[in-house]
Design goal:
This protein is of the alpha/beta class. The chain has helices spanning 6-12, 17-30, 51-56, 68-73, 75-84, 96-99, 109-120, 138-141, 147-164, 188-192, 197-208, 226-240, 262-274, 295-314, 334-338, 355-366; strands at residues 61-66, 87-90, 124-131, 171-176, 213-218, 247-250, 253-255, 278-287, 319-324. It has an eight-stranded parallel β-barrel, surrounded by five helices. Bound molecules: ligand G3I.
């Protein structure tokens, strides 16, 4: 059994601590699964630490993306979310197709629901995302627009959405995944406006909310390499042009077979921090489907990756948040995207903590970090 934090484990098994410890000790000594005695006492375990309480005591943010339907319909989802996290990112509710399904007609009900939940639970919200190459409404992708029209439409979209959440959403993924494998990715924005669409988007977001911290967010550039170098050059140039860029989001969508090594992630975070930028891990999940090992081995390897990436972030002052792309295997984008089952997150589909959860608890518990604000 993974070396787990007994206090934390108590949370998930409704047993007084002493019985739980005796039960586990009996199992480990005899190596057999002795049935744990019926609880004789009704003493409640002391309030065991949660990811949220551990993060907050270090003035750090630990977060997850939020599926608005699960938040609305599943009590276990909303309870776990409020208990374990102090930062949320709407998974789709703030995207272009969701918020402006028809030109000039805005629909914010789903995003409002998530923002209201976050406000009620003192959580930070990462607005996601204002400009992306995909998930765009048909009126935009099917239309024929001049450069001036595209500029007007994108500006109106950004100003409307960012202004609406001023004071409630103060971190935005302004531009998402603009980088291909080393050059800018083709998109309606790049073709129709030119590469300056990136700088413009940040200027408009700044105009709409002067207090917001504006991020560039991408995947595949977490460690060192061609794409990481291209992102570094992009954001360095933006800063040199006076673009109001506050930070870079490293998405960290990885798998058991493909992930950046910890020292490259550290070096990349450090060089971005040396530019005066914040760094956040913004979408971590660890795909398990391409690994043929037994599930127990896969879960242990998955836990190691989660723990290492959090440790790396905690070791860099400029790394201010660690956000995962979901928290329960019941709600991950990966099975729908790949057409195969997967177990990429830190709670299983029944909201039981996996080894990865305890690896994050351990990384936070061992961190001596005290946040900057
Ligand atoms: O809500 C509709 C539903 O009414 C309809 O029946 C169903 C079938 O068509 O689609 C539902 O919308 C889907 C939406 O997720 C909500 O589940 C969209 O089709 C689907 O494209 C959308 O996928 C999301 C994807 O971004 C595109 O927005 C994924 O959930 C989301 O996890 C994924 O997240 C991205 C980040 O934003 C950026 N980084 C990569 C990450 C993973 O791709």
């Amino acid at each position: 059994m993974e070396s787990v934090n007994l206090e934390v484990l108590q949370r998930f098994i409704r047993l007084p601590g002493i019985l739980l410890i005796l039960g586990i000790a009996a199992c480990s000594l005899t190596g057999i699964q002795t049935p744990i005695a019926k609880p004789a006492l009704t003493v409640q375990p002391a309030q065991a630490p949660t990811l949220r309480s551990l993060a907050q005591s270090r003035r750090f943010y630990i977060g997850t993306t939020v599926n608005v339907n699960a938040l609305r319909d599943e009590a276990a989802y909303s309870a776990t979310l409020a208990r374990e996290f102090n930062m949320v990112t709407p998974e789709v509710s703030m995207k272009f197709s969701e918020t402006e399904p028809q030109r000039g007609i805005f629909t914010f009900a789903q995003a409002d629901y998530i923002v209201a939940f976050a406000q009620a639970h003192q959580m930070q919200v990462r607005g996601h995302n204002l400009v992306w190459y995909t998930d765009l409404p048909a009126w935009l992708t099917n239309g024929k627009f001049t450069r001036a029209e595209l500029i007007t439409m994108l500006r109106d979209h950004i100003i409307t959405e960012v202004k609406r959440y001023r004071g409630q959403v103060n971190i935005w993924d302004v531009v998402n995944e603009a980088m291909g494998d080393g050059t800018l990715r083709d998109s309606i924005w790049l073709r129709g406006i030119g590469p300056e669409y990136i700088d413009m988007a940040f200027q408009w977001a700044r105009e709409a909310n002067p207090q917001a911290r504006l991020f560039y967010n991408d995947y595949g550039g977490e460690g060192l390499g061609r794409k990481s170098d291209a992102i570094y050059a992009l954001v360095k140039g933006m800063l040199q042009r006076g673009v109001p860029l506050a930070g870079v989001g490293l998405q960290m969508h990885i798998s058991l077979n493909s992930y950046p090594n910890q020292k490259d992630v550290l070096a990349n975070m450090q060089r971005l921090a040396a530019l005066g930028l914040e760094v956040q891990i913004t979408e971590m999940d660890v795909k398990t489907q391409d690994d043929a090992r037994p599930m127990q081995a896969k879960l242990a390897a998955q836990a190691q990756l989660y723990g290492e990436m959090l440790q790396t972030c905690l070791s860099v002052t400029a790394c201010t948040a660690f956000v995962m792309w979901g928290f329960t295997d019941a709600h991950s984008w990966i099975p729908a995207f790949t057409g195969r089952p997967d177990y990429p997150l830190i709670f299983d589909a029944l909201y039981r903590p996996k080894p990865a959860y305890f690896a994050l608890v351990q990384a936070l518990s061992q961190s001596t970090r005290v946040g900057v604000k």
